[in-house]
Amino acid sequence: MEKILPPFQRYSLVAKMFHWSMAAIIIPLWLLGFYVGRIMPHAATPQKALLLLIHKEIGPFIIVLTLLRLVWRATHRPPAMSAEIPEEERLAVQVGHFGLYAMMLIVPLTGWVRSSVHGLPIPMMWIVNLPPLAHKAPVFVPLVNVLHQFSSWVLGILIAGHVIAALLHRYGRKDSIMDRML
Ligand code: HEM
Question: Where does the sequence pass through the membrane (predicted)?
């Protein structure tokens, strides 16, 4: 049964804005990286270069958003979890959320290091060029590529688990977890 939640059991407007705006950026950016890297033919084409440019311009901005969100999170308490939720489930939720925050930093950082060792520019949002995080060393490109791909898969799996859990709460258990973020 749906309940009207009191404000202290809901995320604040700012927390919701961070959550939904970042979800709206990260999910398409992940799919774009997957499409360019896994589905498009290997050969370099102008189309592929454009899509990759969009991926690279927006990627580092996720770091800025995540850091701002973490500062907000550290200074504004999230709503307390319901006492009905068993201890193991609370722990699983906390580990999942921690993993999402960690991967929202690690995935774009590995992309930034990748461009750095490649000796490529690191533009952000068509506004600034970021400094390289490592010296140019093309020999490390394959290794950093693997790190970027692997961390992206971890993030993708965490997001999928997170979305499935939220939907199961809403349509399976029919509890008020989803309403906390709406
Ligand atoms: C359709 C997609 C999504 C849905 C339905 C959804 C749903 C939710 C809900 C209901 C909560 C609150 C959980 C609670 O009260 O304990 C939440 C929290 C959270 N979500 Fe999502 N989410 C989605 C996408 C994402 C994405 C793409 C990310 C990041 C990559 C993300 C990261 C987080 C984080 C870090 C929290 C914890 C907030 C905190 O307490 O600090 N979510 N999400």
Answer: 17-37, 49-72, 92-113, 150-171
| Nearest-CA residue for atom 28 of ligand 1 | 23
Average pLDDT over residues 12-26: 98
Residue nearest to atom 25 of ligand 1 (CA): 23
Domain CATH number, residue 78: 1.20.950.20
Q: Which domain holds residue 72?
A: 7-181
Which pLDDT score, from 0 to 100, does residue 3 have?
Answer: 61
Phi-psi region of 14 (alpha: psi -120 to 50; beta: other; left: phi over 0): alpha
| Per-residue exposure over 117-127, b if at least 16 CB sit within 10 Å of its own CB, e if not | bbeeebebeee
Q: How many residues does the chain have?
A: 182
27 Cα: distance to centroid of ligand 1 (angstroms):
12
Residue pair 158/26 in contact (Cβ under 8 Å)? The answer is: no
- Reported as a single tens digit per residue, the pLDDT across 110-129 is 999 999 999 999 999 999 99
Which residue's CA is minimally distant from atom 4 of ligand 1? Answer: 163
Q: Can you give the pTM of this predicted structure?
A: 0.94
CB distance 104 to ligand 1 below 6 Å: yes
- For the Cβ of 92 lying below 6 angstroms from any atom of ligand 1, the answer is no
Ligand 1 centroid, distance to 142 Cα (angstroms): 32
* 2 occurs within a structural domain: no
